[in-house]
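1st attempt posting a full record on here, be nice pls
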Amino acid sequence: MRASIEGEDEEGCGLEILDNDGIEHWIEIKYDRGDISYHEQDGYPDKPAKRTNEGNEHVEQARRFAKYHVYRERGYETIARRHLPEVVAAVAVTVASLSPEEFDEQFGTYYQQFRSTFDADVEPVIDPPGTDDDGTIVYLQDVYLDADLPDLLDDDQIDAIQAALDTETSLDELESQLGQDLIDIDSLLNPASLSVKTSGLGTIYQRAGSESITEPSGSLDRPTDARLQLPPKHDSTDEYMSPETFQFLIFHHLVCQVRDCYLRLGLEPPEAVRVLGIGTYRQTIRNQYLDMFPPVHSTTSPVDGYRLPGIGSHLEG
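the predicted structure (as tokens):
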């Protein structure tokens, strides 16, 4: 993916995008909300219904990448924060740095809901939206940092985070280096002193031909920095019983979301986040149904260049 800004005024800009299929796109974006006011391309049918699934994804990648490029080059928040890899990476490190008491205070309801799916002695926080064995349930929870990270990051600081993502090769090393990068950005951004707030729970229930979403309850009146999107676990193993292991599971899930932030933009994920496991719900669907994506959501089969996390294949099925 390549992008260049070809013209702009106080309301927005026009970009030329070259997608991963070698097709040029001309896109105009408004700065205030990131709305796309114009999009022309010369390689796919104009009507989505006449494109292949892969063609539609290339078109959508061009639009997403254009918004991300404007954010990086001009600083306008033209893309949702929970789709910004550097923001989700900061959330991941902050969650990993929480004390057990802090983690339980913010994520205890999500842990309870997760455990209730395989432990009959644990009451669910919310009732599952459906009981169809052919359906898929994903439990949602919004996460908010107590720092306005996009406002605090400049190009050099984003590059420092990107460098850590490009060079680290283990989750422990990534957590350590990203934590130091945040400290270097601002003394207030020490992950050990950062805190997070969370919403209540929501759900996605998907079955053949239909999908229903219940947004998380109690969401804050501010942009979401990350959203947990894990399916339930239906069998009990000791490695999932402890809150400490669950905290690492959430860290790993958020790192997989960082990986998916790059995939949805048509970019190769950096080395540090080439891990197998469930990330975002939407990218998981793309991985399952589009051959252009490797099945990195699964931990049951190898993918060249990707590795398993250190706590087993906890997201099988």
